[in-house]
Write a structure and sequence with these properties.
415 residues; alpha/beta; FAD/NAD(P)-binding domain; Polyamine Oxidase, Chain A, domain 2; 3 domains; 4-stranded antiparallel β-sheet; 13 helices; 24% strand
């Protein structure tokens, strides 16, 4: 009998299982799908690496620095900043605290006016301070925080909202200001990137040493008390463990453990093979114009050539998937992406569409970055829905759940 059964082999579940295994605690991982990673997976289509939804790894995340060998992933890095499509073209804007004068370029390029620079700088400045200096303060919506700093339309609507909508996959003005600060801070401190083998390389690195513990295609249907332990029931197996960790997405965790399910935001990502790169940019591109279809787009083969076969080029285009709305057609997405780059997309070939209804938990104020992971009597739950909606949150949740499990078993983790 294992000490612990971890249900779910996403980032949180793998981080939890890895910490427990390293501490000598017998651990089994039951994963319902045909591979590990949860939402962090990559499909290879005709030699092109298409992540399930546009995702990036930010090496500035503290948990990534501590637990991930970034160099071994062969990270292809985006340039630091964003490219903004306006009525008169695509403009590159740096997001770099070393070059604050870039705000003046952003103001000119996007037409938001030089009078917007001081309010933008006023809002941005606290973000560069250590998070502990502002995370303990009362939280509010980003919209309220921007207004308090004097950031109003058009700076808000032509620059911040288009950029951040692709980050939170919802209305950024309704999101927690503290959460947005955490994300913007990580982007300012380091350029994000993607592993050479696709985002799937991240969970596979975390799973190193767990091969014998991970069982795929094992769909769990229920968890019930059994004597001093917990019985985990799957379609094809049933086993009792001293403790169980429910490391699934928020909706599945709600079904198995009765935990509240937060509002979730969705996205749709289309992947296109192109005979030529529509732009040389290594920036994520956004559309600041009214009625924009896309949340963002990027020429992935410029950032990581391994994402395309030799001589090929790969473009991703992502839309926010709002409740009650049908996603735009592939043809509309293809046209919108070509328009962002001011390129003819007629020769692009559609590879795959990823529709992800529950891509990220909503992060309304007040931010709750440390929700309880212990449900009592040896049941635990972890995932980015227990911390922050990010890779950082998933890794932190997994590690602190492992610490809670180990303490329950009377075998505290070292360090």
């Amino acid at each position: 009998m294992p000490d612990v059964i971890v249900i779910g082999a996403g980032l949180a579940g793998l981080a939890c299982a890895r910490a427990l295994t390293d501490a000598g605690i017998a651990c089994a991982v039951w994963e319902g799908s045909d591979d590990i990673g949860g939402r962090v997976r990559t499909d290879v289509v005709d030699g092109f690496r298409c992540d399930r939804g546009f995702q990036v790894l930010n090496p500035a995340y503290p948990a990534v620095k501590r637990h991930v060998d970034v160099r071994a992933l062969g990270l292809g890095r985006f340039d630091r900043g964003v490219a903004v499509r306006t009525d008169d073209g695509l403009h590159a804007i740096a997001i770099d605290p070393r070059h604050p004068a870039e705000l003046f370029h952003a103001a000119r390029a996007t037409g938001i006016g030089l009078g917007s620079v001081v309010p933008l700088a006023r809002w941005f400045a606290p973000t560069l301070r250590p998070p502990r200096s502002w995370l303990g303060q009362p939280d509010r919506s980003l919209g309220e925080g921007l207004a308090d700093s004097g950031v109003m339309a058009p700076a808000r609507d032509r620059l911040l909202v288009p950029f951040l909508s692709g980050v939170v996959l919802g209305d950024p003005l309704a999101a927690s200001e503290q959460f947005v600060r955490l994300v913007v801070r990580s982007m300012a401190l380091a350029a994000p990137g993607v592993p050479a083998q696709g985002m799937t390389a991240l969970p596979h690195q975390l799973a190193a040493g767990l091969a014998e513990a991970v069982e795929l295609n094992r769909v769990v249907r229920g968890v019930a008390r059994d004597g001093e332990g917990w019985r985990v029931q799957a379609d094809d197996a049933s086993e009792v463990a001293k403790a169980v960790v429910i490391a699934t997405d928020a909706r599945a965790a709600g079904e198995l453990a009765g935990t509240p399910v937060p509002a979730m935001h969705g996205c749709v990502t289309d992947w296109f093979a192109c005979p030529a790169a529509p732009s040389p940019t290594r920036l994520v591109c956004i559309d600041s114009r009214a009625g924009a279809v896309l949340a963002n787009t990027a020429v992935m083969s410029n950032v990581a050539p391994s994402y395309a076969p030799a001589g090929g080029h790969l473009v991703q285009a992502t839309c926010v998937w709002r409740d009650g709305e049908a996603p735009p057609s592939v043809a509309d997405v293809q046209h919108a992406a070509g328009d962002v780059y001011q390129a003819d997309p007629s020769a692009w070939r559609h590879l795959v569409r990823h529709e992800i209804r529950d891509a990220l938990p909503a992060q309304p104020p007040p931010l709750e970055p440390r929700r309880d992971v212990a449900l009592g009597d040896g049941r635990f739950v972890c995932g980015d829905h227990r911390d922050t909606a990010s890779i950082q949150g998933a890794l932190v949740s997994g590690r602190r759940t492992a610490a809670a499990v180990a303490a329950h078993l009377g075998r505290p983790l070292p360090g």
